[in-house]
Structure prediction request, 547 residues.
Amino acid sequence: MTKSALQIARAAYQPKLPKALKGAVKVKEGEPTQSVADQEAIKALFPNTYGMPLIQFVEGEAVNMPAINVGVILSGGQAPGGHNVISGLFDGIKTLNKDSKLYGFILGPGGLVDHNYIELTSDIIDEYRNTGGFDIIGSGRTKLEKEEQFDKGLEIIKELDIKALVIIGGDDSNTNACVLAEYYAAKNCGVQVIGCPKTIDGDLKNEMIETSFGFDTACKTYSEVIGNIQRDCNSARKYWHFIKLMGRSASHIALECALQVQPNVCIVSEEVEEKNMSLDDVVTYIAQVVADRAAQGNNFGTVLIPEGLIEFIPAMKRLIAELNDFLAANASEFALIKKSHQREYIISKLSKENSEIYASLPEGVARQLTLDRDPHGNVQVSLIETEKLLSDMVAVKLAQWKEEGKYVGKFAAQHHFFGYEGRCAAPSNFDADYCYSLGYTASMLIANGKTGYMSSVRNTTAPAEEWIAGGVPITMMMNMERRHGEMKPVIQKALVKLDGAPFKAFAAQRERWAIETDYVYPGPIQYFGPTEVCDQATKTLQLEQGR
Ligand code: FBP
Prediction:
């Protein structure tokens, strides 16, 4: 593999570990845990893995560990640092016993079911240390949920003498990890399952999981590019840039980028829902900022839009919920309807309120709402062109105002969607260290016989030395939610909290940012140099932890 000078220098980087993981460790058990909601239902579904205690690793005595074989799976969307989770896991099991082996299942959970794997040797691992991407073994979105899949997986697990499986994924994949842990525990298979919190979306977090990995690097990458756009639009002074940002349902990425770049507008889906705003309210808000800036001679600006916005406009949310249930129940009939008749078909099947809203949507957006759900039943919000929808509607609104005699200046829009650009970026120092620590912690959970736990590394705005490593029972994060028309146990998604410090910091400044051009240009991620430039956690984390 030909490498750039930066890649060569980066390969030599030794990620930092929490102090407690630098030598032998022992387990310090906390109190038994409960699920965040629906305790009785979750307890009944997970009799073997419910209620386990929180775990923290502290310095301990060295013990002789037998060699173990471990399997690892990368699941779902890519996130910077996945390779470091795997290298941390590899180094962890090798430190415990040099004869331990790591097997990687290829292209996600499907690799386990299809028995598609490779042994990850030190030569392979060394090629991927501190690099972005998931290409070491690839990723996939196959949902592990059926007993046939678990049993098929068990065949290869037994054949390779694997004692533990590490699933690196987001909320849905870790939900599946928990179900798998319970299944193998119930059948006494002798297979442990450990999860690791991955997703650029930042929505897999709670008291014990401070952030999902990849969020840091992805937000810094998007902020660099948004900063460049801001400098361009402040130079040419002729465009409004509508920038949609990945993040699925949650607006964490948009909010973090707003805190980093100080745009003129950032929409936060969770606020739109809370204030019961309609699509027209959102459009009016943006158009007013455009008109106010025009009055000052500034016919340019930036608007950040979270990709999940459409699902949070209450009327749209009701429409999508009905569509989800309807499409889940009538998938085969819908597949037979000709494309040109699908719109009319849907309109004829929905309730009166929802069919009216559906009929009022532009053709493209209406079609995007009926596209296949992902294997977890989510609308593929990345395919809905909200940035174009909003800018078109803003243009119409401004034209109306102009006719009414209001001054609106000139409005020309450019559109961007940032998502894939950041998911495989080389991990920042934060993600490189955090991911390596998560992987290393997973190896310690395995060595201590744990199953149904997620690897947890906390105190992450302090220097890595002071980070706290341990495990959280996955059942602790669960509640019951409607999926594919049925109630299912799932990890509760962490949305932006409107009473949280990051949103409050944004809300306190947004009116000024709207009118003044006080852009920040964060520049590219730096790996070498002063710690205040290279090692800072996201603004979200810093504000949440009062730093
Ligand atoms: P995960 O939740 O699996 O980490 O995926 C995150 C994400 O990047 C979302 O932000 C986005 O909506 C989705 O993946 C896009 O999915 P795909 O890669 O299948 O296009």
Q: What stands out?
A: The two ends are 41 Å apart (CA to CA). Residues 215-236 form the longest helix (22 residues).
